[in-house]
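User: Run a structure prediction on this.
Assistant: Running it now.
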Amino acid sequence: MIELNEENLNKYIDGELSDAERAELEKKINASKEFSSKFKIMTSVDKQLRHMEAESPSPLFTQNVMSKLKGRTSFSKAQNRFIIFIGGFITLLCLGVTYYVIKIALNMTGDAVFNIPDLSSYWDNFSSQLTSFFRSIALPKYFTFIGSLASFVILISGYFFFESFKNYKKLTKQL
């Protein structure tokens, strides 16, 4: 016994039912006004869909997609350069910290077996000038200026971040 529902109506239209099931379903369709109207609508939609032509992409579709993908590689190259720059900065920072730690370790032992006088004097001079600079700006009268400058830098970097994000979204929508 076959039930009268939309799934079985679809199977009837698609020709997936046996002859006995088709005959039983036809009787039930004719007996129900609701399913009779649904069946008529479904058969008309099926006929319209079967007579529609399949759409095909334009002849320049592949060329347009490939040109847009080439435009994205320049954006990726800029990201790669930025990552290399940050990686180089972190590497230099690690080398400086390593040199500083080795210098302190050698000075603590008292054995000056590994002595680099030129670099050591330059480093001492640089670190003392850097320390005096930060001590001079750490006065309370400069805190407002430093805070304002930091806020300005954060606002400007946020602006450029969101602009690049909008450009990235625009590029992805075009694809």
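Residues 6-51 form one domain.
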